[in-house]
Task: structure prediction
Amino acid sequence: RQPDWDWACNWGREDRELHPINCVDWSQAEAFCRWAGKRLPTEAEWEKAARGPDGWKYSWGNECYGEVGSPVANIADETAKRENPDWTIAEGYDDGFYDTAPVGSFPPGASPYGALDMIGNVWEWTADWYTKDEARSLRGGSWNAEPWSARASDRGRDEPSSRNGSIGFRCAQ
Result:
């Protein structure tokens, strides 16, 4: 784990039992899913779960942050701006969290399939390579993601050994 991310890591913190597990590298995420009798989703599976059959821009539809009427995802917002004045944020949008939020905090942001937290909270490792043998694919954006990158079609990437406070995972069945 990178020392500068220690404050944002949820594992073992009593006040974070309901938050997503983050600060795990790709191998750790893959091993946990395998242990649970599951696997990491492919990018195509992840995107289908997030966008639904109509190919929405976000898991909740095509309305931007703040247009839905209630918080829909945990991204860089007005709360984050108070902590980091130089961040690019979703102006006028405030989900109330600076770092990760408890899983399922934004029911209005559910995908058509009922999947929660597909956008924001933590980038999610997928089973796929972003570039051959160099970087693994991440999807969904995170709590510190700029609004342009926190949408269902955006792809992120990182070295498989990367571990930080904005990367987590979900398992596929």
User: Anything to note?
Assistant: The beta strands are 123-131, 135-139, 155-158, 167-168. The helical segments are 26-35, 43-51, 78-83.
